[in-house]
Amino acid sequence: MDVGWFAGIVIGGLSGWLAGKLMDLRFGIFLNVVIGIVGAVLANAIFDRAGIHVASGWLGYLVQGFVGSCILLFVAKLVRR
Q: 76 in helix, strand or coil?
């Protein structure tokens, strides 16, 4: 199910913000949202290729985006050091 590009940006931004809060990283809300959008796109592509379907609709995209955002924020934290 495709939620559309605007909804994808909003959900990706939300997942990035949530991941930043969970991981307690202080990159700033703008960078967390950007990382969230990129993480959502990457996680969606990886999960689709692997055949993993978390849930359908916006909730599935939120979970996938959250996982992708956490991974990207972790990598950004390593690079930042």
A: helix
Which pairs count as long-range contacts for 49-57, CB under 8 Å and 24+ apart, including other chains? 56/1, 57/1, 57/3
Residue found under tokens 């703008």: 30
Q: What is the pLDDT of residues 12-62, one digit of tens each?
A: 788 888 888 888 777 777 887 788 788 878 887 888 898 887 777 778 778
How many DSSP H helices and E strands does the chain contain? Answer: 3, 0
63 and 55 Cβ atoms separated by less than 8 Å: yes
First to last CA, the chain: 39
